[in-house]
Design goal:
The chain is mainly alpha-helical. It is 71% helix and 4% strand. A two-stranded antiparallel ribbon has the order 1-2.
Amino acid sequence: MSVITLSTVGFGWFSAATEAGKVFGAFWMLFGVMALAALIGSFVEWMMAIKKMERFNEAKEKLNFYRWVKLFSHPDPKLGDQGMEMYDFMKFGLLMKGLATEEELQRIEERFAALSPNADGKVSYDQVYHAEGPPAYLKRERTRALAEAAAES
């Protein structure tokens, strides 16, 4: 009975006789709809959390952890053990949190190598902007360069 009252306007058995009763009824209906929506939203969120826990595979997570530690760690004589540099640790963290895949990291590294970094392993701002910049900016730059070339000749 209370679900019917909260989710709709009820059976219509009772109706407000005064203006104050009608105003109260209107607010009560809005409150009921909002309460039911919140309840349904909480239920859906709870069910999604359960499904996520069911999909979690602890054995797979452990295997990935050890595989990625082995992949990104390198011998470090100072430590007398294996170690990771900041870049390797960042890749390891991205993979562990599921924010990137190994293929995506590989493509990013290939794109960086295509920019022809200098001996220090760095690329200039202009190299990045011209190779990776927004298409509208690049079109404007090409148009400006062509206009400058035409003005000089």
